[in-house]
Design a protein that fits this description.
Alpha-Beta Plaits, alpha+beta, single chain, four-stranded antiparallel β-sheet, two-stranded antiparallel ribbon
């Protein structure tokens, strides 16, 4: 797959405890994106954050949170991102999705290929 130049970066902000059909939502999203042939996805786990209810979620020992912030990042062609948005939206109860333009300089394995 060739993925260079102007693309779209999608960030999906959810909580660690969010679920889709009894599975962690972030895992379900990554599996779905992989099955749909997306270029790649990365899940980042936050150590502190808050959302629309302004409740602080933190990993500090004095207040163990079961709902730390999680971000699923995906970079791919704009039309591919737009096409999958309704499916992603149907999987989410809360959270936030952002899109931004990004310029991909390199997308390949160490041997110079990807695919």
């Amino acid at each position: 797959m060739k993925l260079e130049g102007e693309q779209t970066l999608m960030r999906i902000f959810i909580g660690e405890s969010d679920r889709w059909k009894m599975r962690p939502l972030h895992e379900a999203l990554v599996d779905m994106l992989r099955q749909e042939g997306f270029a790649g996805a990365t899940v980042l786990k936050g150590i502190i954050g808050f959302g629309c209810h302004s409740r602080l979620h933190t990993d500090k020992l004095l207040r163990l949170s079961a709902d730390l912030p999680v971000i699923v990042e995906v970079v791919d062609k704009p039309e591919k991102i737009q096409a999958i948005m309704p499916r992603i939206d149907s999987m989410m109860n809360g959270g936030m999705i952002t899109l931004e333009n990004t310029h991909v300089i390199r997308y390949r394995k160490g041997d110079g290929t990807c695919g």
